[in-house]
Design goal:
Length: 374
């Protein structure tokens, strides 16, 4: 692959944006995916598609990373340059007089050495202090909060992210159950509000109001949460967020990763991803087969970068990509179960008022109609 142009391989121009690169990559993978061929009867095509998929994945990993893309676009030659010798008859400038050296500073005392600022970006990190953990977003240091928000918003491109859930289903149920109260207002039929049926109508409305309150609470929490529900593969961590909770694991604690595709009546439904960290397990589902392949390749890519940086003692790499570097010295409170259900209470109160208003409106209207007829 080293002899191929990565931009031509993905079918984009050199000045393409990240969105254009991703769109072209997804199209190329869809067109040349090995699943389009039978491994037994079309073995040659299947092998060729596998090789092409590997090249596409590697090309995308380089071009989606701004740092790697900049190194690819502008490679730096490490060959030392030799000064050119003047030819015969060439006038040479006289050598510059030696500059006066400033006086050497006095050696620092032990107390001054302790208080002097340390360039932490060039010091070896303490890997024993970088451990997995779980915390609430509010209990993390301010700097860690800003880095997580940058990852959720997509400002930090050095990552691979998968959205694990959304709020579409809960919003749909809130709107659908609201139609019941519209029916109560418009359903002015006398048998509906008879004394023999008012108890059953009240119980049914209470159940619907409770279900709607639960979904409404989820919608409000989702829109108030700065993190939502994501899974991130970063240069040093695997991070999972849900509402205001954060789970994080260093890459070197990952001992095994297993992806199991789930099928129903021959159709692909989702993939269950199971991660193992020092005896602990974490699992979630991905609803796109391609997203699962990108997840596995991203984990492998960042693991190689991490080991390369550690081998060459590139401690700046660890300092720049450590999203939780202040957590080791910051008192992080463990997450507690929240008991704030204000949105659910507001929804229940609103449903009660709507039912009472519908009952009053319809009973008075029925009374007026009966009096008018008499």
């Amino acid at each position: 692959m080293t002899g191929k142009n990565l931009y031509e391989l993905l079918g984009v121009h050199r000045g393409a944006t990240q969105k254009e690169i991703r769109k072209s990559y997804m199209l190329k993978v869809k067109q040349s995916h090995p699943d389009r061929f039978n491994q037994e009867s079309q073995k040659a095509e299947w092998n060729q598609a596998n090789e092409l998929l590997k090249e596409l994945n590697l090309a995308y990993e380089v071009l989606r990373d701004p740092i790697a893309r900049a190194h690819y676009d502008h490679p730096i030659s490490r060959r030392p340059t030799r000064p050119s010798r003047p030819g015969p008859g060439t006038a040479t400038a006289p050598p510059n007089p030696p500059k006066k050296q400033p006086p050497k500073p006095h050696p620092k005392t032990p107390s001054q050495r302790r208080t002097a600022p340390v360039n932490r970006s060039k010091t070896k990190p303490n890997f024993d202090r970088i451990k997995s953990g779980v915390a609430t977003f509010e209990s993390l240091p301010r700097s860690s909060q800003q880095r997580l928000v940058a990852r959720v918003s997509g400002k930090n491109q050095t990552q691979y992210s998968i959205q694990l859930a959304d709020i579409t289903a809960a919003t749909f149920w809130v709107l659908l159950l609201s139609l019941w109260f519209l029916f109560l207002f418009t359903g002015a039929a006398a048998p509906l509000w008879e004394s023999t049926r008012i108890t059953a109508l009240t119980c049914l409305t209470t159940i619907i109001a409770g279900i709607q309150a639960v979904f409404f609470h989820q919608v409000v929490r989702w829109h108030q949460s700065p993190l939502r529900s994501w899974f991130f593969v970063t240069p040093l961590y695997l991070i999972r967020t849900h509402m205001n909770k954060v789970w994080y694991w260093p890459l070197w604690e990952l001992s095994d990763i297993k992806a199991t595709p789930n099928y129903h009546k021959g159709e692909y439904r989702n993939t269950t991803v199971r991660l193992r960290f020092n005896g602990q397990y974490e699992s979630f589902r991905i609803h796109h087969h391609l997203a699962c392949e990108l997840l596995l390749s991203s984990v492998q890519n960042f693991e190689q970068r991490f080991r390369r940086a550690k081998l060459h003692e590139d401690w700046v790499y660890f300092w720049e990509h450590d999203d939780f570097r202040e957590v080791a010295t910051y008192p992080v409170r463990p997450p507690r179960t929240q008991s704030t259900y204000g949105a659910a209470v507001v929804s229940l109160v609103f449903c009660t008022m709507a039912f009472a208003s519908a009952y009053t409106w319809n009973t008075h209207r029925d009374a007026g109609l009966s009096s008018a007829e008499s």
